[in-house]
Amino acid sequence: MTGKAKPKKHTAKEIAAKVDAATTNRGGGKAGLADRSGIEKGGHAKLECPLCKVTGPDMKTMQIHHDARHPKIPFDESKLNNLHATKVVAESSSKPKPGVRGSLKN
Fold it and tell me: Based on the structure, what is the number of domains in the chain?
């Protein structure tokens, strides 16, 4: 049991975990949306399986997924959905947004 005046010691593992949590994009907010859509930085998921909607970063990964999950159906790479080509970021509208309680009163 430590006293009130004694500082607590942190392990290297805890410090590394805190640094990782603070510096890694976990996918929330506008930065996460841009990362998931793949328009700006390339994103993580480029291809999508048309059968089960599982996403993958490249053709080889999707080939492995298809052989493992859909062995009876022949693999056709032209049927894969390219998410980078189809996703478009929605533009903001010029309409005024409702207030805190949902009213547009002045």
Answer: 1
